[in-house]
Design brief:
alpha+beta, 9 helices
Length: about 290
């Protein structure tokens, strides 16, 4: 079992940042007018995928390079210039100094989640439920997968409906990303995503339509993706869930452990515009 240290946090945060960055790239290819893009600032990925998208934020802030006011100047400008809120998912491994800087810059915590992981190894076969099947979607099934995803998420997050409806054109166009569909008695009932990067398999987007919840579909989705990730050469799986949620409990039942509790910080008061500093001007930029 890997230790929950800075090295692990870097792997996990990079995998999630990579997945969200390439989601924004896929949206940009499918919908150029969206303006979706991403850049790297001091090792952190800043992703803009639309003003209300949950992917619009930074990943890995302060764990690859020291967080400084100059870096925050550049990151804040990236989001504010696009009319987006400034949000950072921050690992506690970024350290007290980074968190103190965010507080001094008028950031406040708005969300807490559990980042979970488990090493990948062959699973002990569990009794299979004959009525449940899980598979990677085939050609022409992106719309079916999106339909299930929309039904599963719309009741709790109606604000994401427009973004979700575009997913059919994006779902199969991301690098190292696969869409899974779970069916019960032949009826599609749950959907999930598997994104792989540098040996880390990120489990995301899992949801079940309301009428078929608590029927074992989420467990089957997790097991199928664990098998697929192992067969694809990954050595580590990760999930992110709201702290104390049903999703966290489902993951823990499947052998995931909490690596750390992560906080999302939001800028609530913008600072007076400042000219770019030399450090900000040297920021690495990547966009596709």
């Amino acid at each position: 079992m890997p230790f929950s240290d800075l090295a692990l946090s870097r792997r996990l945060e990079r995998a999630e940042g990579y997945a969200c960055a390439h989601f924004a790239s896929a949206r940009r290819r499918a919908f150029p007018e969206s303006g979706s893009e991403w850049r790297e600032f001091g090792g952190a990925f800043a992703v803009f995928d639309g003003v209300s998208s949950p992917a619009t934020q930074t990943f890995g802030l302060g764990i690859f390079e020291k967080l400084t006011p100059a870096k925050l100047d550049a990151i804040e400008a990236f989001f504010l210039d696009r009319g987006a809120p400034v949000l950072h998912e921050v690992s506690p491994l970024a350290g007290v100094e980074a968190l103190d800087l965010l507080c001094a810059r008028h950031y406040r915590p708005v969300e807490i989640c559990s980042v979970m992981y488990r090493p990948l190894s062959p699973q002990i076969p569990q009794p299979a439920r004959a009525e449940i099947t899980v598979r990677v979607i085939g050609p022409g099934e992106a719309h079916l997968w999106t339909s299930v995803t929309v039904q599963a998420w719309a009741d709790k997050h109606p604000e994401l409906l427009d973004s979700l409806l575009q997913t059919a054109a994006i779902a199969s166009d991301r690098e190292q990303s696969l869409c899974f569909l779970a069916e019960i008695d032949g009826q599609p009932g749950a959907a999930g995503v598997l994104c792989m990067h540098n040996g880390v398999a990120l489990f995301g987007g899992s949801a079940t339509i309301p009428a078929l919840r608590r029927r074992g579909l989420q467990r089957a989705l997790i097991e199928a993706r664990l098998d697929y990730a192992l067969a694809s050469g990954c050595d580590l799986a990760m999930m992110v869930a709201e702290a104390g949620s049903d999703s966290q409990r489902n993951a823990e039942r499947q052998g995931f452990h909490i690596a750390y509790t992560r906080t999302k910080w939001r800028l609530f008061q913008t600072l007076s515009p400042q000219p770019p500093t030399p450090e900000a001007a040297d920021t690495t930029e990547r966009m596709s």
